[in-house]
Design brief:
heterotrimer; A mainly alpha; B mainly alpha; C mainly alpha; B: mainly alpha; C: 1 helix
């Protein structure tokens, strides 16, 4: 990487930082000031504006892991391995946040911290799958073996999601029916102000994902570079 | 095609001969499954809970746990003596190695299950003979799915430092759809429902089997690569 | 309206999670910097 390129990258990174910051500021204003309190559920309903974006972000991150895993096995390029690792990390972090905010929302509404409802259960299983993915990465030394194994697990894990979804759905279902996207079209079940707030929050979280991705990918590349130099040093002396 | 089948059968044959000579794996799996059932019988109060309600779950937990022992063994044995290297040096397709291992895992586990079933019948006072055929179909589908994914992951885990620990951690979350499916189906069969009542579960388990055999064929080359 | 605590807790956890991840990134950066310094030192000693 030339120094020009690094500078350019940094500039882009700075713009992204500012954009993300602004989006989160807007989201906070929208969540706590702009959007009116929902009648039946009260203030707690505002948790939704964190809960859904976190869920979206983690699913998106896992999808990126899947795509990058396929691309890695196909092209055998370290670049894709870095992407899937960074994406899996971010996905697990936000999946944990879904699993934490879910019970906090459920407690006042359903009267229990945890209900074995379909979507909560499948999110928990998803979390376990990708935690095991990260464990597999931590278990093996850097190199082509780790990248190949992780890619296989990334593919296998993502293909399991529809099966888990249906099995758990038939097992039992409690969750409020999706309000945002119903069979009548997108957003029919919600007030427009709620939709706007949710949209802003989704944007903010998506920007955060790209920000984290950028930072983590640059970090991993730097690490590769340092490792390479170290190895050269060892072999030359 | 003929060569491919020959390669598969050679691997299966090798596994069988080893097992017949040592008899390590089968006895370990059988005793372990029995112990799991026993521990569950102690942990639930059978005078309160109906046996036909908890029975299917216990049976499948026993199958899966002892199946994990078999999976752990299947590639580890090769790894320990450097035989996997030999297998890979043979001009055989990697897929043949996968299918050979899949078949021998599947057969070992199935035989073990056939031995466990009568004991299960006696311990839980459940009459299985009335609906044996649908039950065998469910066991076939479940065991095949378990072995399809399990063989792939055990070939992967055998190269890790902490293989015995990592295999269940990687395998169990992915097995959730199949576990829910077979336990549900077994429970429904024990209450006498016909197979046509649970076509959705059969479809789900069968697609699990097909998807994971397909994925394994496509990815095994990348795992067994040295 | 005594459910405000729940809203606050959820909000705090989300921000806590984000800050925690930023913290781990920072730590990894620090480790990398240390590595780089070490590398530079050994290189300059030789050169």
């Amino acid at each position: 990487m030339s120094s020009d390129e690094i500078e350019e990258n940094e500039e882009e990174g700075n713009i992204l930082v500012w954009l993300t910051g602004l989006a989160f500021l807007a989201a906070m204003i929208a969540i706590f000031i702009y959007v009116p309190t929902e009648k039946t559920e009260g203030v707690v309903q505002r948790i939704m504006y964190f809960h859904i974006p976190c869920a979206w972000l983690s699913f998106f991150a896992f999808f990126v892991v899947f795509i990058c895993s396929i691309l890695f096995l196909w092209k055998k390029d370290r670049e894709w391995d870095i992407y899937s690792q960074a994406s899996a990390e971010i996905g697990v972090i936000f999946c944990s946040l879904v699993l934490i905010t879910g019970p906090i929302w459920a407690r006042p509404i359903w009267g229990a911290w945890w209900v074995w409802d379909a979507r909560l259960t499948s999110t928990l299983i998803l979390w376990l799958i990708y935690v095991s993915y990260l464990m597999l990465r931590a278990q093996s030394d850097a190199g082509s073996m780790r990248a190949r194994y992780a890619a296989v697990l990334g593919i296998v894990g993502f293909l399991d999601i529809p099966l888990i979804h249906f099995s758990v759905l038939w097992w039992r279902a409690f969750h409020p029916q999706p309000k945002v996207i119903t069979s009548e079209g997108i957003g029919k079940g919600m007030d427009p102000t709620m939709l706007v707030t949710l949209g802003i929050s989704l944007c903010a979280f998506t920007l955060l994902y790209f920000l984290f991705m950028g930072v983590r990918v640059r970090q991993e590349k730097l690490k590769d570079e340092i490792d390479r130099l170290k190895r050269e040093k060892i072999y030359s002396s | 095609m003929n060569l491919f089948l020959n390669q598969i059968s050679a691997i299966v044959w090798k596994d069988f001969v080893t097992e017949l000579k040592t008899r390590e794996l089968f006895s370990a799996m059988f005793v372990f499954a029995l112990l799991v059932i026993l521990i569950f019988i102690f942990s639930v109060n059978l005078s309160v809970v109906k046996a036909s309600e908890v029975g299917p779950g216990i049976l499948w937990v026993a199958f899966l746990f002892s199946g994990t022992i078999g999976l752990n063994r299947s590639f580890m044995l090769e790894k320990e003596n450097g035989c996997l290297m030999g297998l890979m040096l043979v001009p055989a397709d990697r897929t043949a190695i996968y299918f050979g291992k899949l078949i021998s895992n599947f057969v070992f586990l199935s035989i073990m299950e056939l031995f466990i079933l009568p004991l299960f019948m006696i311990f839980f006072n459940i009459d299985l003979l009335g609906h044996l055929l649908p039950l065998l179909l469910v066991i076939f589908l479940g065991t095949l799915g378990f072995c399809a994914l399990g063989t792939l992951l055990s070939s992967l885990a055998s190269n890790l430092k902490t293989r015995e620990i990592m295999l269940p951690i990687l395998l169990y979350p992915l097995l959730v759809p199949i576990v829910i499916g077979v336990v549900r189906m077994t429970g429904q069969i024990l209450t006498g429902e016909p197979l046509s009542e649970m076509m959705n579960w059969i479809g789900l388990t069968a697609s699990f089997d097909i998807i994971y055999i397909g994925v394994s064929i496509m990815t095994i080359d990348h795992i067994l690569e040295e | 309206m005594d459910n405000l605590g729940f809203l606050f807790a959820a909000n705090a956890f989300v921000w806590g999670g984000i800050i925690y991840y930023v913290y781990t990134i920072k730590q990894r950066n620090r480790a990398l910097e240390k590595d780089l310094e070490l590398l530079k030192e050994t290189l300059s000693k030789e050169g």
